[in-house]
Amino acid sequence: MFRSLLLLLxxxxxxxxxxxxxxxxxxxxxxxxxxxxxxxxNVDEDIPNLVIAICxxxxxxxxxxxxxxxxxxxxxxxxxxxxxxxxxxxxxNFTSSIVGVDPGIISITPPMGxxxxxxxPAHGNGYPFLIGVAGSCDTLQxxxxxxxxxxxxxxxxxxxxxxxxxxxxxxxCWQNEVVSLSTSGNCCIxxxxxxxxxxxxxxxxxxxxxxxxxTITINVDxxxxxxxxxxxxxxxxxxxxxxxxxxxxxEVIYAGFDGANGPCGNNPPTTTINGVxxxxxxxx
Length: 284
Fold this sequence. Notes:
Blueprint: H1 2-11, E1 27-32, E2 37-42, E3 50-55, E4 60-65, E5 72-77, E6 97-99, E7 106-108, H2 149-160, E8 163-169, E9 174-180, E10 204-209, E11 214-219, E12 227-232, E13 237-242, E14 249-254, E15 272-274, E16 281-283
Parallel strand pairs: 1-3, 1-8, 2-4, 2-9, 3-5, 4-6, 5-7, 10-12, 11-13, 12-14, 13-15, 14-16
C-alpha cells in the first residue's frame, strides 16, 4: 500500500504541492513487531538524514548494515523491552542491543520502561504506553494490549522530529532476518493530521481509490478553490463529476492499472472521466 501511494503521488506531480519525499529534518523508517527477535536492517537506499526506529514488546537484537548505513543519523528503540525475553521464539534470553552505527546516535529505553504515547486517538484501540504492536496496519482493530500504527508513528515523530518515510510492521519474531529498506514498508498510517482552517493556495487534492473500479459520481458540494481530484484503481472506472462547485476543479488525474472490470458485473470496459473539460484530465 505504501509503495502504491508513492506511485500515485509521483503521478500527481503536476498537481502543485507534492509531498516531500526527503525531509531535511529527518526521514523516519519504523520497524515494529510484538515478539522482538534478531534482525539485520539493510540500508540499501540512499535516504538522507535517516532515522531508524524500533518498537517491540520483547527484546530485540538489531544490526544495521548496507551501502548507505552512513546516512543513519539516529537509531531509537522504544518499547517494553520485556524481561520475558525471547524463549517463545527459540532464541534464548538476551537484552535489547543495536550495533552497526556510532553508539552515540543510539538510544534504548530502560527495560520494562515503555514511554507514554503522545496522542489519545478517538478509536481507542491502542494502549497508553508504547509496548509494541500486533502487526495489523489498521487503527479500527484492537491491538490486543499493544499499540496501533498511528500511536507508534506519533511517538517516534514527536521524539525525533523526523517525518514518517515508511513503517514495516508484523506480529511474529524476527528470526535472524535481513530486512532491506528497498523492500520494506507495509503500513502508511500516519497520525491524524491537524485541522487546517482554510485551503492551500497551491492546490487542494482529494483522492479516491479502490481496487475493483466501477462507477463513481463525485458531487463537488463544497466550495474548495483550485480543487485537484486523483483517482487510483486496479480495474476500470467511470468517474462522473457533478455538483454546484464542479467549476472549481482545475485538474483530474487517473493513475492506476485500468484493468478489465469483471468482479463487479456490468462495469465500464475502460476508464472514462466525465463532467469537466477534457483538457484538465490526465489518464495514465
